[in-house]
Amino acid sequence: MSSGGGRDERVNSLVRGLEVLKAFGRYHEPMTISEVATETGLTPASARRMLLTLTDLGYVELRGKRFRVGPKVLDLGYSYMSSMPIWQIVQPTVERISEKFSVSSSASVLDGCDIVYAVRANNRQASSVLVSTGTRQPAHVTSMGRVLLAFTEPERRETILSQIHFSAYTSHSVMDIDQLRLILEQVRGQNFSIVDEEMEFGLRAIAVPIRNKRGEVVAAINAAGSNRALDLDYLKNTVLPAMFEAANMIKANLPA
Amino acid sequence: MSSGGGRDERVNSLVRGLEVLKAFGRYHEPMTISEVATETGLTPASARRMLLTLTDLGYVELRGKRFRVGPKVLDLGYSYMSSMPIWQIVQPTVERISEKFSVSSSASVLDGCDIVYAVRANNRQASSVLVSTGTRQPAHVTSMGRVLLAFTEPERRETILSQIHFSAYTSHSVMDIDQLRLILEQVRGQNFSIVDEEMEFGLRAIAVPIRNKRGEVVAAINAAGSNRALDLDYLKNTVLPAMFEAANMIKANLPA
DNA sequence: GCCATTTTTTCGCTATGCGAATATTAATTC
DNA sequence: GAATTAATATTCGCATAGCGAAAAAATGGC
Questions:
Q1: Is the same domain home to B124 and B211?
Q2: Which nucleotide across the nucleic acid strands is nearest to B12, CA versus C1'?
Q3: CATH number of the domain to which A232 belongs
Q4: How far is it, in rounded angstroms, from Cα B184 to Cα B191?
Q5: Strand B217-226 vs strand B203-211: parallel, antiparallel, or unpaired?
Q6: Which chain B residues are Cβ-neighbours of A17 within 8 angstroms?
Q7: Domain match, B107 and B232 both
Q8: pLDDT tens per residue, range A4-52
Q9: A223: domain range?
Q10: Would you place residue A123 in the very low, low, confident or very high pLDDT band (cuts 50, 70, 90)?
């Protein structure tokens, strides 16, 4: 981006301001000016200016001495949901799957090494994991992440793989990049993925890719629940066909 | 904000950049530089700089000649959800209500003249209205909006009321500020609201306030469905007590 | 190929936003 | 309550960041 002309085409004040907004997501609590300054590396005077600007615009609210984000920031995220017709189609679909199979059903996309949840319908008996639009989870230990990685362009995939930080979320978590490559190859072959207790004990999930009319994988959809309730045969023989069907229906309804 | 000192404490480049982000929510489609420039009033050179910055940061993606927001913008909205413990408590609650009564159940807050949805659990038989985190609806014709307005500080409420744009969403919509004031007074007295086909034909909803430990109303929770399925007696005698109970449970679980 | 439009690049310019320093206020310690 | 420390608000000199205009290059439509 700094190529050519020697002049920076990047608006640094915007970068700094967004950094302040981002800090609220990391900190999880209302913050004072000083805390924002510390969290962002800005001087107190700069942090204050950014905060006052964000407050003026309504994205941040001042309560006493502390700033916190207000509901208006949801507008920024909402633009993602409203600008892509796919989510309007997927939303009722995950609701149907959730109800039909008493599972938690979600759809997500890949962003960096994470999946980002876009829509979700939960059956409470299925899962007590708190997930909402925007929730991130590490792609490599989630069913949807596996699907999305498997069908990502090879070069891009290798870049992502090289950035993965392997952690033992459970004792079942994949910890090795070569093992993960094998898994993804398998996923590519079978066109679905199953993850069993790799991110969370007791949780089993199955995911399939959502393709657009050009055949490109644009999202993934899953069904998840406790492994006690979701027996593998049931998953493969009953749930999976319905999910392929759902993915095809979504594809059929996507604009060209 | 421009008070004192004669110097503007507002960072205009941040304002402009956020204006560009906001434009994507309005436009609902991928945009070219020129379209962004037109939509925001910036010059093409400025619009380009903002777009390149946002792209560099990952919030916007360039596809061919068009820019569109990427899933990373959901991080910005997510900071709202993650910084307030209330939504973690409310999420399973709305799921329970939705399942128990075969309704759509949501929670929202007031922002300007709108309610902004924070969490939702939908039963597809109940509602096919597409709502997700961040969805806005006019407060004055929604059950939750009525509750939130009723319990807003009087001065603030009058300011909001004076900004309401009365439209006939249906033939039942309230169209008069005095009538609305009467309704809100009633809501205050009974501590719940029912809205019947005021925003959407066939839709009936009931809402109660969620209070924090200090007794302040901080959100509203509702149950909604078709007026065919949700008979008024059932709503008042069966659903409403459960909602009061839910609101109390949420309050009990909120941090001090 | 021609023309209109859009995008990209360049660059002079100034006002924007910066950080340092100081004043004021608030919080903490004894 | 007084003294001290920390945080916030304000001021201001300054230089560079970001601007818009203009030109060059690229693209799209006929």
A1: yes
A2: C16
A3: 3.30.450.40
A4: 10
A5: antiparallel
A6: 11, 13-14, 17-18
A7: yes
A8: 334 678 899 999 999 999 999 888 889 999 999 999 999 999 999 999 9
A9: 84-253
A10: confident
